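Human: I wish I could look at a protein chain and see how it folds. This is the protein in question:
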Amino acid sequence: MPELKWADGVPETEFSVPFVQGMMNRMAASYYKYGSVQANFPSARAVEQVRARLQKYLDTGNTEFLMDAANFAMIEYLYPYRPDAHFRATDSAETKEMSDPRGHQVNKIRDRLYHREGG
C-alpha cells in the first residue's frame, strides 16, 4: 500500500492520522463483513450515505459518523455514480463561500441581513 507523504512545513495539527486510521479500520471490517465495495455496494447510495452519516453526527455528536461519511465519500470517489465524475483542482475563488474557516462569507451575509456597512 502506498504511503502518505506529508508536505514540508505543514504542522501536524492540520491532519488527523487517527481519523484516517479509523476510516481504514472501518473499511477493513466492512470488507470482511460484506466483501469488496466494488462488487457489493450500489454506488448510487454512496452520496446519500454521506448525507445520512453527517446528519447522524449532527444529531448525536458521535465522531464515528464523520469517519463513516468520509468513507462513503471515498467510495463515491473510487466508484462514481455520475458518469461525468471527474477531478479538477479548484482554487479558493471557486470554493470561497463554502471553505472560508474564518466565517467571512457568513459575516457578509449577516451584514447584508442587518444592513451593516463594511461587510
About this structure: The longest helix spans residues 17-34. Residues 14-83 form one domain.
